[in-house]
Amino acid sequence: MAVHGQAGPERHPSRILVLKRVQRLAQALTLGLAVVACEPGPAEAPAAGQPGRALGQEEAGQLDRELREVVEAFDLVGLAVILLAGGEVVYEGYAGEAVVETGRALGPESVVRIASISKTVTALALMQLQEQGAVELDADVSRYLGWELRNPAHPDAPVTLRMLLGHTSGIRDGEGYGAFTRAMVERRLPLRELFAAGGAFASDDMFAAHPPGAFFSYSNAAWGVIASVVEAVSGERFDRYTRNHILDPLGMTASFNPADLPAADYAALYRHRDDAWSAQVDLYLDEAPVDRAWEGYVPGTNGLLYAPQGGLRLTSPALARLALALMHGGALDGGVLDGGAREGGVLGGSGRGGVRIVEAATLDQMKAPHWSYDGSNGDTWDDFWMAYGLGLHLVTNREGKDVIFPDRTMFGHAGIAYGLLSDMYVDAETGSGVIFITNGSAQDYTYADASAFYEVEAAVFHRLFPVLQELEARRGATPRDVTPPDAATRDAATPGGEDR
Questions:
Q1: Burial class (CB in 10 A: 0-12, 13-18, 19+), 155
Q2: Which residue in 90, 208, 462, 471 has the most C-beta neighbors within 10 A?
Q3: pLDDT (tens digit, 9 = 90+) per residue, 259-277?
């Protein structure tokens, strides 16, 4: 049996709590969270609990217990949490299951479809080509596609790569987008057919009424255009380009091609329907994932094949490695590499040298606000998107809106699709960051009272924040007297579209 997919509308899981599921989780959690709480080093990780350096065993145990409470309170399938402080990983914890049907536990080896955090990797791929002078961000994207891309309402206004990276191109996830993604593999469709005026997939809701560049409208379809440009300019298929130039150099267990990773390591993504868990993506019980590209596929034909908007599969430690590279200006040094304190974990070292995937100045371009909300110039999804760079969500920390830790701004990305909820955010100034992944909840995802993040995310942030403050105080940072965000809910619907 295999359940897999690349695109589809996000829907709420059921709010029904299931007693049997709670009992099963409680049994699994008696074994405790798999935890690392130590200071990484160039070759091996020192013992946990060094004064002023990282979490001690007692502190880590308390955090374990608090995260178990989150799993039980929100009836999650599984939960992975990683905390960064002082520019390094200081905590790595897992709970619950990767696969409900077999009871396999979620752990550092579990491969997860990470949803819209994928967009940051896609953006990095394009920015590498910009560094090489192969593309210009403000040029008409049609130059690289080999066909003209236009908003029918504004036929004389070019769409640029900068607009695409910053969600101001005017492209939307209309009805035609969903129909196209469902048909493109079987019918071997080129991406240009999605945007062909009067074509089979043309729909009035594929473009905004505003001219290109004038309005922020979060789009997944636009990232198929970006990936097509990466392919056309580099001559490499998108999944191979990102592995060759980003994922493998960073030492990440990750790929946009599901067939590249072992079927036995996948964590399925779940929604809860009719009193039962229903796998939506990546359940491989007796089959393996297959490559989506057809024989004779020419790079540049259809960048949506490998879901650049949300289809990156990776492990939690791999995501931490990406976060560290972003934190450190586009480079990952040899001191924070796989194979250290715990087998498969992110901490420790393997003797591999450092690597740079983009120049610091390029990452500064990505982090600079391309768009900031002024009250009327974009769709914020209930105050979640308040500022956006180039493939990076910029957390402005406005009270009651986009708050993670209430004393700092951060950058990174979030994701939501097929029941998964994910976050990867860092603050380069303080060297702090957080990774959050759950592969399903029996409850609806509802917004927190003091934040536009969801209640379950805010609950984890709430528990991590005082730990982070204590670690920073030990390291000599100025203590911050800030009350952690409240995790109370307010009723709200999940924003539309496949991935947040």
A1: exposed
A2: 90
A3: 999 999 999 999 999 999 9
CB proximity list for 33: less than 8 A, separation 6 or greater: 64, 67, 68, 93, 94, 95
- The answer to whether residues 305 and 343 belong to one domain is no
Determine, yes or no, domain membership for 12.
no
**Residues 127 and 139: beta-carbon distance below 8 Å:** no
C-alpha dist (Å) from residue 55 to 37, 61, 339, 404: 5, 9, 20, 21
* DSSP string computed for 177-212: HHHHHHHHHHHT--THHHH-TTSTT--GGGB-SSPT
User: Does residue 460 belong to any structural domain of this protein?
Assistant: yes
In a domain, 215, yes or no: yes
- The three-class DSSP label of residue 426 is strand
Residue 206: exposure state from Cβ atoms within 10 A (0-12, 13-18, ≥19): buried
With a pLDDT cut of 90, the percent of the chain lying above it is 76
Rg (CA), the chain: 21
- 3-class SS at 467? helix
Assess whether 82 and 194 both reside in one domain.
no
Domain interval for residue 236: 111-257+292-314
Q: How many Cα atoms within 13 Å fall on the side-chain side of residue 384?
A: 24
Q: In sequence order, what DSSP letters do the residues of 46-75 get, joined into one string? A: PPTT-TTTS--HHHHHHHHHHHHHHHHHHT
Sorted by sequence, the CB contacts under 8 Å of residue 466 that are 6+ apart come out as 484
The domain total for the chain is 2
- Helix (H) or strand (E) holding 460, with range, is helix 455-474
pLDDT-derived band at 55 (thresholds 50, 70, 90) equals confident
Structure tokens at 81: 């949490």
335 plus 440 within the same structural domain = yes
One domain, residues 105 and 134? no
**Contact assessment for residue 280 and residue 441, using Cβ atoms and an 8 Å cutoff:** no
List Cα–Cα distances, 343 to 31, 318, 347, 349, 473, in angstroms.
Answer: 18, 13, 9, 11, 30
Question: Do the beta carbons of residue 114 and residue 313 sit within 8 Å?
Answer: yes
Q: Are residues 154 and 300 in the same domain?
A: yes
Same domain, residue pair 193 and 242? yes
pLDDT tens-digit readout, 182-219? 999 999 999 999 999 899 999 999 999 999 999 999 99
Regarding whether 58 and 42 lie in a shared domain, the answer is yes
Question: The pTM is what?
Answer: 0.86
Is 375 contained in some domain? yes
